[in-house]
Design goal:
The protein is α/β, with parallel strands linked by helices and about 400 residues long. Helices cover about 45% and strands about 15% of the residues. The protein has an 8-stranded mixed beta sheet with strand order 1-2-4-3-5-6-7-8, sandwiched between helices. α4 runs antiparallel to α5. The longest helix has 24 residues. It is globular and about 65 Å long. The two termini are about 35 Å apart. The mean pLDDT is about 95.
Length: about 400
């Protein structure tokens, strides 16, 4: 689905288009919005997506006032997506006031959706180091007396619990699972409004999340699975390496030592982590000439990590390694690889490093599951991942 010749805008637009299959967007609304955007003009991007979000939310409010819950829920769900789209190109530090305003509107629309959804969606707060992390507990029905097998979702760099809802929670609750979504440091509200930065020791983040999960009567403490997508393919295994209460793990895609796939010459790579940032900055400077890479590394990564140079980023990433801890992961693990996803190049390294039962699932071009995290065919991913979970957590039992 092509909306923009501008590769950065097309990349962001696809984040909305991928939600069409699950009601999080409509092609007509996305295409109409694109028609009001000038190539490379981030202000026109922000205004156009914000206007669409406002219009869709107003229609949803009109339905809600008249008691049309299904129509209202659908509208607020799409408005959530469009508000998120409006600020994606504005990533960076200091935080753009437009991003803060749009993120607030996104949260408000998702909150309205949660109150109207056909299955329970409860916004929660997870205690964490003197503050709380934003979460969302999703259930297959209103029976709060049943302890269910549960999927805990771990996010990546630039997503949040609202986007993770379509990828993790919807397929989970349809299959009778509970699903707990949480944004940790460097993600969603924790980053935008609380200023919490990304950290490599995700076991310190996952542990209080599992503490919270085991305290909920709707969650079966003996059947908790953790799934990480995108950079969560590192964060989730790192977290599970420090918590033996987790019964199953899915890494989508499987990451291992991400710094080793950065485009560095051996002479510089061999000096990590003792090299000075300035030596790396000189080599990495051309990266910023490409708009997509500039967004990914200069705008996004430096903001998420709280850094001020690409050299400092590379040195920081040397701390994000699974090679020293993967052997501690003894629960059954599903590692995802996708021939169309460069991030999965280390999937088999993770597979080989695990200390327990492991399964590799590979998606190929002929599967029709192109895109990062199988974004263009999440249904196929869900089929393979949840069929594996059914066997692993339920002994083959399905809902």
């Amino acid at each position: 689905m092509h909306l923009f010749d501008d590769p950065l805008f097309q990349m962001h637009a696809e984040r909305a288009l991928m939600l069409i299959a699950r009601g999080g967007a409509e092609y007509g609304e996305c295409a109409t919005t694109a028609g009001h955007i000038r190539s490379g003009d981030r202000e026109s991007w922000y205004r156009a997506w914000s206007a669409t979000a406002s219009r869709v939310a107003a229609a949803a409010e009109h339905s809600a006032e008249r008691g049309h819950r299904v129509s209202a829920a659908g509208g607020f769900w799409r408005a959530t997506t469009y508000n998120r789209m409006s600020y994606q190109p504005l990533f960076g530090s200091p935080v753009d006031p437009r991003l803060e305003a749009a993120f607030k509107r996104e949260r408000e629309c998702f909150s309205r959706y949660a109150a109207l959804a056909s299955r329970p969606v409860e916004l929660v707060e997870v205690p964490f180091e003197g503050t709380t992390l934003p979460g969302c507990l999703c259930l297959p029905d209103d029976d709060r007396g049943v302890a269910r097998p549960t999927l805990v979702g771990v996010n990546g760099y630039d997503s949040n619990i609202h986007e993770m809802y379509w990828a993790h929670a919807l397929p989970a609750v349809r299959r009778g699972y509970a699903c707990l979504l949480v944004d940790g440091p460097g993600q969603g509200r924790a980053l935008v409004q609380q200023g919490l930065r990304m950290r490599p020791d995700w076991e310190t983040v996952l542990r209080p999340v599992i503490d919270y999960a085991t305290g909920r009567p709707e969650i079966d403490a003996g059947r908790i699975a953790v799934m990480g997508w995108s950079f969560g393919g590192y964060l989730a295994p790192r977290g599970v390496s420090g918590d033996d209460r987790v019964a199953a793990l899915i890494a989508d895609p499987g990451l291992y030592d991400p710094v080793d796939v950065l485009p560095l010459p051996p002479a510089l790579r061999d000096q990590l982590p003792d090299i000075g940032p300035e030596a790396l900055d000189e080599y990495l400077a051309p990266v910023a000439d490409d708009p997509v890479m500039r967004w990914r590394l200069v705008q996004r990564a430096l903001w998420v990590h709280g850094l001020d140079s690409l050299g400092a980023y590379v040195i920081e990433m040397d701390r994000y390694r699974l090679s020293g801890v993967a052997g501690r992961i003894t629960c059954p693990t599903l590692v995802v690889a996708n021939d169309d996803d460069p991030l999965s190049v280390q999937a088999e390294l993770l597979l080989d490093g695990l200390g327990g039962p492991r399964t590799l699932v590979r998606f190929r071009a002929e599967d029709g599951a192109r895109g990062h995290c199988q974004g263009w065919n999440r249904s196929l991913f869900d089929q393979r991942a949840f069929d594996w979970l059914d066997v692993t957590l339920r002994g083959g039992e399905t809902s």
